[in-house]
Amino acid sequence: MTNLVLFGPPGSGKGTQAAFLIEKYNLIHISTGDLFRYEMSNDTSLGQEAKAYMAKGELVPDSVTIGMLRNKVEKHPDAQGFIFDGFPRTIPQAEALDALLISMGTEVSGLLSLDVGEAEIVQRILKRGETSGRSDDNDEVTVRKRIAVYKSETAPVFDHYALTHKSHSVNGLGTVEEIAGRLSEAVDALRKH
Ligand code: AMP
Known about the structure:
With 193 residues, this protein is α/β, with parallel strands linked by helices. It is 60% helix and 13% strand. It has helices at residues 14-25, 32-41, 45-56, 62-74, 91-103, 118-132, 140-162, 176-192; strands at residues 2-7, 28-31, 81-85, 110-115, 167-171. It has a five-stranded parallel β-sheet, with helices on both faces. The radius of gyration is 16 Å and the shape is globular. Bound molecules: adenosine monophosphate. Residues 10, 32-33, 36, 53-54, 57-60, 65, 86-87, 89, 93, 136, 146 line the site of adenosine monophosphate. Adenosine monophosphate is lined by residues 10, 32-33, 36, 53-54, 57-60, 65, 86-87, 89, 93, 136, 146.
């Protein structure tokens, strides 16, 4: 299996690039942000629970997020691999993902981090907010909060996978095609091992 963690701050292009990678490598895309938005749009109890955290730019608690992720993975027993987009975002989430994949006889193949500077991502997210309908993209205070949470809680996940030499940085600036090309090179190198 090829199991990729697509990593990087909010607005770094994870969703856009995931769409390309799933096609090329025949992987299942799991975006916890998309799953929460789906639950919210259906007004489920999970959606209601996540809503307040998301609106403030905070993380939904690990217990809720990990349970949702596990359910989703278990729905695809025949998958050739997964792209995790926006997950794991904390060390406990990374540990839970590692344990889940081990129980399936597999592991994270690699973490690919899209490097984009803070000024650029704030501009990108506010621009996306003009059309995405996401309230957490519209308000600069919330956007900056999400970036602060990324730095304090999520960035350590890069170091977690670096311990086993699985973390790789990819330049996230350029055209969609240029970035996709860089990611493909990184994925092909991972799959050779
Ligand atoms: P995203 O679409 O990945 O930018 O996620 C939007 C929001 O959903 C985040 O700001 C969090 O509130 C919540 N969220 C998404 N993924 C996670 C996660 N792995 N852990 C906790 N909260 C998450």
